[in-house]
Amino acid sequence: MTIRAVVRGVGHYLPDRVVSNAEFEASLDTSDDWIRSRSGIERRHLAGPGQTTADLATRAAKAALEDAGMQADEIDAIILATSTADLTFPSAATMVQANLGMTRGFAFDVQAVCAGFVFALTTANALIIAGQATRVLVIGAEIFSRLMDWTDRGTCVLFGDGAGALILERTEAAGTPADRGILSTDLNSDGRHKDILYVDGGTSTGTTGKLRMEGKEVFRHAVEKLAETAHAALEKAGLGSADVDWIVPHQANIRIIEGTAKRMQVSMDRVVVTVQDHGNTSAASIPLALSVGKARGQIKPGDLIVTEAIGGGLAWGAVVLRW
Ligand code: UT7
């Protein structure tokens, strides 16, 4: 008998305000054509002044609970992947816990930047396998617009705000690749690359700081490392590229998504792509894409999904799961 963490529900939330590429042309030396052709992004959602990361996360969590037909008090743990928590502490996850009216169980944030959701899923899976929790709400939520230097055209046009959530539940299974649920995970980081993607604030400066990125360098690592980690995760599950129904990648750049799919020998009609509508929402991008992919009718029960992501750290990884 093998324990599997199976997806019971999924949901997302995007703030109302949609900003097109053309809006940046008024304040920056940029163009819709450059942003589309270099990144694939056409628009992004930005949070309103009063909205917080915990607000976005709560909306996504409620949508996932509704999809699962569950109440908040049936959840044992909340893991929230974010790099834009509202306060240094307490965690945004505990704020979501309070917003949901959940007074038992435990909640905490995971911070692995754009790879955060893959790290959070892996942590949730480990808690379920270890018998620490039966049902875990895993959320990715970000307000990266609060970290933007709006004068830096190399970064501010790329990011957006949003949240997505999944509910995982413990089940007993045969222990084969045909089982539903998380089949394998692969996590990596290499702190030597901290200077190519970081926020120049924190307790060392007493400010929140702004995002700084050497885009070309990050791009180079991304295409190489994403295919590697996806292959490693598939291998651990005893599977290969031919078994994949959907790649649900971190949505940073369509050229990275295409390059990774090509290296994995998976055609683009088996990749869920939302980057054109959301931009890069960091840890929120994979659960957003899972939720949108399901709503579009792309992802169906029994499908074999590979998620992969890379971000600041560098930190990167992949999760293989059967929906
Ligand atoms: O999610 C976390 C991980 N992050 C990523 O995965 C992002 C990875 N990197 C990328 O997606 C791409 O590197 C970018 C989209 C950021 C940039 O694309 P690129 O093809 O690597 O362009 P580049 O940085 O080499 O810049 C090419 C040119 C430069 O001008 P010069 O030096 O050739 O004259 C930039 O100054 O494009 C210029 N440029 C812009 N031009 C118009 C940079 N940003 C803009 C802009 N509009 N917004």
Present the secondary structure layout.
Elements: E1 2-13, E2 17-20, H1 32-39, E3 43-46, H2 53-68, E4 77-81, H3 92-99, E5 106-110, H4 116-129, E6 135-143, E7 161-173, E8 181-189, E9 197-199, E10 211-213, H5 215-236, E11 246-249, H6 254-264, H7 275-278, H8 285-295, E12 304-311, E13 315-322
Parallel strand pairs: 4-5, 4-6, 11-12
Antiparallel strand pairs: 1-7, 2-3, 6-7, 8-13, 9-10, 12-13
Helix pairs in contact: 2-3, 5-6
Bound molecules: oxa(dethia)-CoA.
Oxa(dethia)-CoA binds next to helix 1 and helix 5.
Structural summary, described in words:
The chain has helices at residues 32-39, 53-68, 92-99, 116-129, 215-236, 254-264, 275-278, 285-295, and strands at 2-13, 17-20, 43-46, 77-81, 106-110, 135-143, 161-173, 181-189, 197-199, 211-213, 246-249, 304-311, 315-322. α2 packs across α3 (92-99) and α5 runs parallel beside α6. A five-stranded mixed beta sheet has the order 1-7-6-4-5, with helices on both faces. A four-stranded mixed beta sheet has the order 8-13-12-11, with helices on both faces. A two-stranded antiparallel ribbon has the order 2-3. A hairpin with a 3-residue loop joins β12 and β13 (315-322). It is an alpha/beta fold and 323 residues long. It is globular, with a radius of gyration of 18 Å. The chain contains eight helices and 13 strands. The two termini are 19 Å apart. The chain has two domains: 2-173, Peroxisomal Thiolase, Chain A, domain 1 (3-Layer(aba) Sandwich), CATH 3.40.47.10; 181-322, Thiolase/Chalcone synthase (Peroxisomal Thiolase, Chain A, domain 1). Helices cover 29% and strands 27% of the residues. The structure holds oxa(dethia)-CoA. Oxa(dethia)-CoA is lined by residues 30, 34-35, 38-39, 114, 153-154, 157, 215-216, 218-219, 222, 252-253, 256, 280, 311.
